[in-house]
Amino acid sequence: MATTFHGSPELRHWIIQQTEAGHSPQALLTELIRNGYEEDQAITFMTAALESRVTELVSSKIAAEKPQDSLPPPIRVPQPIGTAWPSVVHALDREVNVLFSLTLPRVVLFGGLLSDDECDELIALSRAHVTPSNVVDMEAGGEKPHQARTSSGAALARGGTPLIARIEERIAALLHWPVDHGEALQILRYEVGQEYKPHYDYVDPAQPGAAPFLARGGQRVGSLVMYLNTPEDGGATNFPDIGLEVAAVKGNAVFFSYDRPHPSTKTLHGGMPVRAGEKWVATKWLRERPHD
Ligand code: PD2
Ligand code: ZN
Q1: Is 187 domain-assigned?
Q2: Which of 15, 185, 190, 220 could form a disulfide with 279 if both were Cys (CB 3.0 to 4.6 A apart)?
Q3: What number is the average pLDDT over the span 157-185?
Q4: Calculated CA dihedral for residues 189, 229, 163, 202, nearest 10 degrees
Q5: Nearest protein Cα to ligand 1, atom 12
Q6: How many other C-beta atoms lie within 10 A of the C-beta of residue 54?
């Protein structure tokens, strides 16, 4: 425990300054005595001033070295494949290829998750219903249009048709994540020039509008973007933090997970502009808990 300094702040400052400038304790003591201090008193002041300074320095060093405590704790996420990284996985009723697998960000590209017919049917189901896409409104809650997302979209209710129910069960088997933890399938159509600028799919819990979103099933922990057609040109899904571009290929699907709502997951991603033709995707967002 440091001795308390009972002298004036100016005296304390002078003792510290002289010491940090390299003057010896003896020189300081001599100077204090020359200025009328008793030797014992001068030694007490010097000891207290320097001990309190050491305490200050140690505390600030500890504070500087303390790990950033702003990282939210990790949450459980879907784990589609284990460490053996097979090249084919059996998902309910289909053999799905693993085209690549990455650890940070956690990204897995699946080949042939959907058949051509399933892709065509999903597009046919949605074509008449697509309206300009919205994003989650973090200030007010709910949703709002946004220039970062120029596509059009439609939500297909969970289990809404036998086709949707089958695809959802396949996804649940592939990702080992229950069907009821998934949001409604989100169908997106991008026309030439349309894009989805880089963003995170989780919501920032600090934003005022996050509460109603999080109340229904908790945080998003994973995304599966399924490509329903192969655009003539453009439309890759990109991960700018790591320079990864995943080509949109009909029937393939890119999965990524984020174990905390934080950029440290490196899951910043976007839909690059379509340069020719159109692009259709179906996104399944996965929650921590059942989502109604
Ligand atoms: O369409 C895409 O490639 C894309 C890119 C980024 C979709 C999403 N995000 C999404 O649906 O969250
Ligand atoms: Zn996204």
Answers
A1: yes
A2: 190
A3: 98
A4: -50
A5: 201
A6: 10
* Cβ of residue 227 lying under 6 Å from some atom of ligand 1: no
Q: Is the pLDDT of residue 109 over 90?
A: yes
Q: Is the CB of 188 under 6 A from ligand 1?
A: yes
Range of the domain at 239: 88-287
What is the residue with the minimal CA distance to atom 2 of ligand 1?
271
Are residues 178 and 249 located together in one domain of the fold?
A: yes
149 and 263 together in one domain: yes
Q: What is the pLDDT of residue 142?
A: 64
Residues 191 and 267 in one domain: yes
Q: Kindly report, residue by residue over 181-206, the tens digit of the pLDDT.
A: 999 999 999 999 999 999 999 999 99
- Together in a domain, 39 and 116: no
pTM: 0.76
Position with higher pLDDT, 25 vs 288: 288
| Ligand 1 closest atom vs CA 248 | 3
- Compute the CA torsion angle 131, 287, 204, 245 (nearest 10 deg): -70
User: Does residue 1 fall inside a structural domain?
Assistant: no
Q: What average pLDDT does the chain have?
A: 89
Distance CA 166, CA 283 (A): 15
Do both 121 and 36 map to the same domain? no
> Is there a single domain that holds both residue 99 and residue 183?
yes
Q: What is the CATH number of the domain that holds 116?
A: 2.60.120.620
Taking alpha carbons only, the member of 195, 200, 221 closest to residue 267 is 200
